[in-house]
Amino acid sequence: MTEKTTSDLVLEQLKQGLALPGDLYTSPTLFAEEVSAIFGRQWLYAGHVSEIPHAGDYLTVTSGDESCIVARDADGEIHGLLNVCRHRGARLVDCGTGSTRRFVCPYHQWAYSHDGSLAGAPRMPDSFDKSRWPLKKVHTSVWQGLVFVNFSSEEEVESLPELMADAAELMNPFGVEDARIAHTEVYEVDANWKLVWENAQECYHCNANHPEFIRTFDVREMAQPTAGEAPLWYSEDRRSQSARFPLKPGAVSLTMSGRPASAKPMGEFADGREPYTAAAHLKPGFAFVFSPDYGITFVDTPVSPDRTHVKVQWLVHRDAVEGVDYAVDNLIRVWDQTNRQDWELCRSVQEGVKSHGFEPGPLSLDETSVAGFYYAYARMMSAAGL
Ligand code: FES
Ligand SMILES: [Fe+2]
Questions:
Q1: Can you identify the CATH homologous superfamily of domain 165-383?
Q2: From ligand 1's centre to the CA of 88, what distance in Å?
């Protein structure tokens, strides 16, 4: 008899409408498998193009043992480069963003251009051929101004725009590529990355836990849409999903007052397009929500079985001026509060599922997207034979 895989087990739970067993959130072995089988093979959000506006600018993105430099070259082209020196393997740059003329290895000073080619290597013999030792490439794709990388070692990976096709029409009007980052928070969440996702997939908990969020977000409309159009689009494997984000009557932005937080509307909303709010995501790690005046991106990075980093960035129109068009406090208030409330809920679930007495319970009518997450997870795991 062959042993049951994790994906088989998840699909069985799904069939019964049940949540997942506790050890899926605590096992170090499973965690290591997920990091390599899922995060090592899927598209991961790296940053917004406005973070690397000029030639020489770069940002970094890490996942598990992997680190990538996303660099803009003199022609404006963006390259994904493995952050590993071709000599004896040192990291070329630390985490974060920066600007440099060359990537010079701190160890023995091999120097690389922004397209990864090796430009200089001191004291190498005459026979040394620099062209044979460029930095390794990491698959990189830009969609609506959002830069994604994929650490897969396969020659070819699936097309990011195709994966995001359903979200394109809904998100186009926001002019995401013309935004810039107004604020960044990195939250440390004491919970497994899957619990963070599950929590974000349902508003079953919103009324009881998110007083700021539900001032403008219409929980009832989300549960039973009356708008007459499909409330949710998703890819067959549920990795990519997008939806309108219903606000209460009169609200035009997800803020405390329902009024815009930034005076400079984004994209087509500057030309009078009727306001709406929309959300999209790409599993395993990326989600974003846009109102006509500002947007927010979320990136989940698994750190250990019971710890996840969530990097959240608030975006505004690139011409919006802090203190004139928006105040950061007001801009971030609803999501920052909501996030902190969510992390506390995730932490409490992480504590609970560790108990020997935890038995996965049935999902509610408001948790269909949690089931969608389980399905996508099972598909991503089974693609790696797990
Ligand atoms: S390890 Fe980078 S130059 Fe030696
Ligand atoms: Fe929440």
A1: Naphthalene 1,2-dioxygenase Alpha Subunit; Chain A, domain 1 (3.90.380.10)
A2: 5
